[in-house]
Amino acid sequence: QVRLVQSGAEVGKPGASVKVSCKASGYFFTTYYIHWVRQAPGQGLEWMGMVNPSGDTTSYAQKFQGRVTMTWDTSASTAYLELKSLRSEDTAVYFCTRESISCFGHWGQGTLVTVSS
Amino acid sequence: DIQLTQSPSFLSASVGDRVSINCRASQGITNHLAWCQQKPGKAPTLLIYDASTLRSGVPSRFSGSGSGTEFTLTISSLQPEDFATYYCHQINTYPPTFGGGTKVEI
Description:
The complex is a heterodimer.
Chain A: E1 3-6, E2 10-12, E3 18-25, E4 34-39, E5 46-52, E6 57-60, E7 68-73, E8 78-83, E9 92-99, E10 104-107, E11 111-115
Parallel strand pairs in A: 2-11
Antiparallel strand pairs in A: 1-3, 3-8, 4-5, 4-9, 5-6, 7-8, 9-10, 9-11
Chain B: E1 4-7, E2 10-12, E3 19-25, E4 34-38, E5 45-49, E6 53-54, E7 62-67, E8 70-75, E9 85-90, E10 97-98, E11 102-105
Parallel strand pairs in B: 2-11
Antiparallel strand pairs in B: 1-3, 3-8, 4-5, 4-9, 5-6, 7-8, 9-10, 9-11
């Protein structure tokens, strides 16, 4: 079955960077786009961007342009999210999710990123 | 960007109740709308896609309807495990967007 397993919780200082991983299994990694979505405490879901492993492309939400880098390692079936210049408002749970039929059909368990000095 | 507006934001209900949650899109998205359920501390899980197609394994008390700009998620008889937050989302028109969520509580 399809599984997305994310790396563990991270704590970052303001101005620093954090990198979260998402290891996929149960399907051919390059067949589907992987997206990143975050959820601040008590808030809704916010799309950050996506990677297309087969097309070698990325697309980022305008809000995160310049601060986010999404990469992947096909040999490891793993996608990565790096967020730079951390601010307190970046404290959130970060999810990877895989596209299915016109929807986000599979989700990682989430990674809590806490920004604190 | 396509805005998805959910209503209500909060819904108080009892076990056995029939409940409906609405999602309005700022422009037509044909039937390309999905619904997810999220429980506290957990990742969202897909319930319905293409507006009305139930994901395999999802109980039949969940149903979806609508097309264009108006969509509805209905739970025919609320069960204790259904108390959660529900989100609509669309990914066919970039950027993908989510509704603000509907928290179903006792």
